[in-house]
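Q: What would this chain look like folded?
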Amino acid sequence: MNVQKGAAMKIDNTADRDWWRGAVIYQIYPRSFQDSNGDGIGDLAGIVQRLPYIASLGVDAIWISPFFTSPMKDFGYDVSDYCDVDPMFGNLADFDAVVETAHALGVRVMIDLVLSHTSEAHPWFTESRKDKTNAKADWYVWADPKPDGTAPNNWLSIFGGSAWQWNGERQQYFLHNFLASQPDLNFHCAAVQDALLDVARFWLNRGVDGFRLDTINFYMHDAQLRDNPPLAPELRNATIAPQVNPYNHQEHLYDKNQPENLDFLRRLRAVMEPFGAAAVGEVGDAQKGLEIMGEYTAGDDLMQMCYAFEFLANDAPTAAQIVEVMERVDRVAGEGWPCWAYSNHDVKRHATRWGYEAAGLRLMTTLMMCWRGSACIYQGEELGLTEADVAYEDLQDPYGIEFWPEFKGRDGCRTPMVWEKSNLHGGFSNAGRTWLPVSSEHLRLAAATQEDDPGALIHHYRKAIAFRREHAALRVGEQDGIKAKGDVVYFTRSSKDETLFCVFNISDSPSDFDMPKGSWHPVGEELGSAHVSADGKLHLGPWQVCLAVKRA
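A: My prediction, written as structure tokens:
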């Protein structure tokens, strides 16, 4: 394993405030990454153990999903203490070791802040629900029932049913966009914003380099609590469980995406700025995700990056669909900065969603490393892991349990990493039983096995990331409009020193293509780049790319 250590280059984000631009970020789901103490659950010490592996991929940063103190009803996305580590993951000293080790390897650390809601076990909510006059009475979204006792409006929870839960103690309903055990914070309350900004300061002072902001567009709600209008059936294109969840029957005009959210994001950016920290926001909106991404990343006083769900969709993207997405980005987010992802902890792994074999996975990886924006890689996608088949009796995800069997939840993408083929649990744990079972189908794709195979997918990821790092035009350069000719996608990336022409055959059939005029020199041979003939004719095999450069 060739680890590129960065200890000689001290990480100073204030000296390189654009470090995030074009960065490759590796997402770690800590429960499933590496178990260091034999309890069947991954932890922070396990992350420290595997950080050399991550550094060997050549990534710029890691994003660690929540590890804060939590009842774990939504596996850490229900926080009961923002400023401490849940004992199942270790303690603050273990987190400090993650930061120190990562920085020594030249890797930055981003953590997942869940600001829109807390756990019902959080002391803030415990106080808020007591009565209508306590010091934190307005820290959550409380509302009186309608005269007939029903919920204040028609808002729905992503996890099913009404977004309102009755509380007998206060004789009011409280808002929960997710589980009923995840009450929403009231961002219209200045004290709530101040408290959450203090949380950000706590972790920045502890050395983190930035944040992934969960459900960034859910922070604010409509203060008038107006009903959402219905959404036409043909527009119900949500990424997660679109057919079984009535949440997708509404146009979410009032329960999220409120304009006042921008004021809070500016306050958060001001807190981050002295540290040179960066944030990537998760925009959860099936209809307006790209527009919100553009809005939230425009200028230099909001968030640096956001990602929407266009390439987290179920269907494999065609050349025409890729062009459509990128044209829309140019139109509604041209001044902003996207962060692209194919997989994460909430969606079926893209190797399964898209049904790609190795050649297709290689091409799409190269494509992500060539187009404008930053990139998120979800743990195990570099191994080509498919969606695991988790039996109903082994399910942990409340979303899957609620909508089984039409929707099996998110456990299939959250099963443990496989490090060794021969180990019972793939090298993840020596426990008798792990929190989710290791997929037997994954064992043949174990990291150690792929290290010994020069043709394995993991080596392609390393080569593609290294190629991106070598070319400023790909990291931070301009991008002309992405175009398609049949199944072939092509575009140009340019910086002051070079111009790259990038061509991708998104098909299992060969295709011919005429290169534009100019002195193009082939690059990217290690990525399987096709040869350009003297007359500019290009013959692309199935799932083949062509990368060519023209120097200034």
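The first strand starts at residue 24 and ends at 28.
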